[in-house]
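Hi again,

Forgot to attach this to my earlier email, sorry! This is the prediction with adenosine-5'-diphosphate bound. I've pasted everything inline since the attachment limit keeps bouncing my files.
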Amino acid sequence: AEVLRADGLAKTYAEGKLRTPVFDGLHLDVAAGETVAIVGASGAGKSTLLHLLGGLDTPTAGEVYVAGQKMSALSDAARGALRNRALGFIYQFHHLLPEFTALENVMLPVLLNGTTVPDASSRAKSLLEAVGLGHRLEHKPGELSGGERQRAAVARALVNRPACVLGDEPTGNLDEKTAATVFELMLELNRAERTSLVMVTHDRRLARRLDRVLELHEGRLRELPADEV
Ligand code: ADP
Ligand code: ADP
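Structure tokens for the complex follow:
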């Protein structure tokens, strides 16, 4: 079954140039455990697509289904709960809360699910250990290096065992070597947790490591054959 589906998705921004659609009639199916790269030129609409898939913005037409649930049919509260439970997010910048420790940051999505503090803490600890931050539990984001912050963000994205992680250039702010390390770690953990991944990237070498590469161009998604990636 698909963990994520876009059906006839369209988006036109009210203040966009000449109100032309960014895309119109887009389809996407992501199977359980599948990893998908979205590539395309700047301005092609990759972030717009990711925002729609993550329920952060509303499409002009079409539907997004997350774990089989139609997003537009849910109340704001139910959509928020589904986003927290079924999706993980990793951005170019870590978006960790500065006043909280690494452990608290990773526990937060679990606590929002109504899990007890001891259970949330033990799940968060095991994931922070898995990303190599077992010795940084009590550090605040400002006391972590850039790579460590992104690894904490990986742990936070996976902590609720989401059906799918959505990444917008998750390693785009790191130097090449750190980016490669964080990316491999993210892939490895995604596989271990059987979580799907949809990742926007401009880095073709990273894209090539995923199951499918889709290019967003002139409002359409085209699957790139391996020799074109
Ligand atoms: P990409 O992520 O591929 O660089 P975006 O999704 O950011 O592309 O942008 C796609 C198009 O939509 C661009 O033409 C951009 O200027 C326009 N756009 C993005 N966000 C907004 C917005 N909030 N309001 C108006 N136009 C926007
Ligand atoms: P990098 O060389 O990767 O940029 P830093 O030089 O910023 O890393 O930090 C090196 C190590 O010291 C990191 O692992 C980080 O966790 C730790 N560290 C940095 N600043 C602090 C701090 N204010 N308090 C505690 N530990 C810190």
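Residues 176-192 form the longest helix (17 residues). The CA atoms of residues 187 and 209 lie 9 Å apart.

That should be everything now.

G.
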